[in-house]
Amino acid sequence: MTQKAQRLTLIAMVMASGIVFLDSTVVNVALPAIDRDLKMGLSGLQWIVDGYILTLAAFLIVGGSLGDSYGRKKAMLAGLIIFGASSIGCGLAPDARMLVVARLLQGVGGAFLVPGSLAIITAVFTGPEERGKAIGTWAGWSGITSLIGPFLGGWLVDSFSWHMVFLINVPVIAVVFWLLRSVPESYDRQSPRKLDLAGATLGIAGLGGTVYGLIEGPVLGWDNWLVLVSLVGGLAACGLFILVELKVDHPMMPLTLFRSGNFRAVNLVTLGVYFALYGVGFFFPLYVQHIMGQSALVSGVVMLPSSILMLLLSPRIGKLAGRYGARPFMTVGPMIYAAGLLLFLFLQPDSNIWLIVLPAAFIMGLGLSTTVAPLTGIVMASVPAQNAGVASAINNVVSRIAALLAIAGLGILVSQLFANNLDAVARDLPAEKANLLHMVAKASKGSGNSQGLPPDLAILNGEAYTTAFHWVIFICAGLAFLGGLISLLLIRTSPGKA
Questions:
Q1: Do the beta carbons of residue 369 and residue 310 sit within 8 Å?
Q2: Which residues 6+ apart lie within 8 Å of 328 measured at CB?
Q3: CA gap 83, 67 in Å, rounded
Q4: Per-residue confidence (pLDDT) for residue 496, from 0 to 100
């Protein structure tokens, strides 16, 4: 294959997976605007983000398996059609329900794009250093789309409206369709052309039920029958999923892949690092806009140093990891990222956002650049080449599960801490002011929106939310640091191999 064809293939794969990663983050800075327009509250905003991640995670392995069996290029074309149609649906959604439904469909489309893109790169680039550099480029640019999402989303919201955050996908998809003409088909000749329907159904039910219960529990009450049934049923389905995958002849998630110690370890690291990434990514824009009173654009611009560092460093670090092994990079990277996160603990409602967040974003970008490419490379090197699509899908599922747990779990924490802090503050206020504070907080449904409060109560609202936000930062930094420790203790690599 010529270098030009390889380059076009890499560009197509980066763009195809990039729009999926972009839509995981670009919507975050638009959440306050969507909240003001559609009055969704924290649980509604969680569904906009988690609904997308839920179907993306639930169908990723299905998408990877179908791509391995019937052709990864065919699977990507199907994914582009679904993703494009649902993006239009999101952009034109007249109400909250339609927006959430369209986001669910977007996740399904994305599940057919990500695993195939990385598997095609693995098939096209064969040498260890060449593949490491290509994966580093893919990881860097794909990571950039995730990190540039807040900036792009902020500009679109402030310049146009939140609807454009979704409609911007359409021209990108058109370009990817055109580029796919030069991409060779790739599939696993040994893969059985039979879909594991039982596993797919249980996986979707397990993730869906558990996430529904976690998000709606604080809203409906933990003793609500629907919440209890969802949680119990979801956890039971997750257990049955594992049993089914151990017994069926052709499981969609081959648990034998976890016999590789590196594969087990790298997925544990993924769980910690991506929990931190998505947890902060969800709550940071809400805090900056609702509590600090900054614009959507500002909340995105301050994170640009991370994007720039990802662009500059990821390909180089991917190449170095291919030569020297992934463990040193995956040990240091998450720890640097955790250090950057801890700077967010200095944020207060009246802080100078530039003096605190810009240095934090620089350090976080350095940490992510050191982590992402080696992590992706070791996922692919830990399994046989014919399982590349499924291995990529499994690792992506783990990262999405981390996101689901972060947004749903931290949402419970933030809602409870915010409510407790407001109760404590309200005790010292006159009845009229206390009632107004509680009324606005109830209307915001835990999102921290202080619209309708006079300045003195808005300050108290901001202080109450700040404590909850700082707990989010502390937990996320701790889990990222733990990811570095796991890499140090469990990952075994040498140059050129996992």
A1: yes
A2: none
A3: 16
A4: 43
